[in-house]
Design brief:
Blueprint lengths: L1 E10 L6 E11 L4 E5 L6 H9 L6 E6 L2 E3 L5 H6 E4 L13 H11 L5 H11 L16 H13 L5 E5 L7 H18 L2 E6 L2 H7 L2 E6 L2 E7 H5 L6 H10 L2
Parallel strand pairs: 3-8, 3-9, 6-7, 7-8
Antiparallel strand pairs: 1-2, 1-4, 4-5, 9-10
Helix pairs in contact: 3-4
């Protein structure tokens, strides 16, 4: 589903240029969930932003659903990949109802049956149909993130880019959102690229993961290897040790 090879990104020019991604590479099979983990500033969210078209001056080779991707923000790319952001309140327009948020991508893509598709999207994420008339400030953080997931899914893309999708939520609702994501993936055959600093979140959702440090992938391993304490790199082992305390 997704192949990333030698992804490089720098900000600035000439002697002032600062490289933030140093040849990042990984592959995700169709229907797989893959995690990128690392401390803040390691470059994991930057990778997502390159794949979502928010940063377009990167170098490297990316193939998405069998098609080469060069950083463009096109309707075709939006139909293949959608991003779910960390802050569900910040990613939803405060003056737009849930209905407006969900209808906008459908109208942009010229799709029909808007009302029916919105009903279906709300049902998929476990929200009552009357929520379509509410504004973001009228619903909880967990419900806002469900709306954000519904908006990402409404175009039926095969790939979701998940940027810390539970870190802004109360602990009590984090597991609900993770279980929802796991269920949606199973039901619809979705592929996930999940960014998180939380090893527990990654282990809950992903079969494989890559550990990033200072813009580089230092180790790629399976969930089983992580849970069985078979990480080889010292930085990965330090993350595991920190998570246990």
């Amino acid at each position: 589903m997704l192949s990333v090879q030698d992804l490089r990104l720098a900000f600035g020019e000439g002697s002032a240029a600062r490289t933030v991604l140093h040849g990042v590479g990984f592959e995700i099979a169709r229907g797989q969930a893959f995690g990128l983990v690392g401390e803040s500033g390691s470059g994991k969210t930057t990778v997502l932003r390159c794949l979502a078209g928010q940063y377009r001056h990167w170098q490297g080779r990316v193939t998405l659903a069998g098609e080469p991707y060069h950083g463009e923000r096109s309707l075709a790319h939006a139909a293949r990949a959608q991003m779910v952001f960390q802050d569900p309140y910040g990613s939803l327009h405060p003056r737009h109802t849930v209905h407006t948020a969900l209808a906008e991508p459908l109208r942009v893509h010229g799709l029909d049956r808007i009302e029916e598709r919105i009903d279906e999207a709300l049902q998929q994420v476990g929200l009552p149909l009357h929520f379509r008339f509410r504004y973001p400030h009228q619903i909880s953080g967990g419900q806002r993130q469900r709306v954000a997931i519904a908006r990402a899914l409404i175009l039926r893309p095969p790939l979701l880019l998940l940027d810390e999708p539970t870190s802004a939520l109360d602990v009590s609702v984090q597991a609900e959102i993770l279980n929802l994501l796991a269920d949606l993936r199973q039901r619809h055959g979705l592929t996930y690229l999940l960014v998180s600093h939380d090893l527990g979140v990654v282990a809950h959702l992903c079969e494989h993961l890559a550990v990033m440090q200072q813009g580089r992938i230092v180790e790629t391993l399976s969930r089983d290897a992580l849970c069985e304490d078979r990480a080889a790199h010292a930085y990965t082992r330090s993350l595991v040790a920190a998570a246990e305390h």
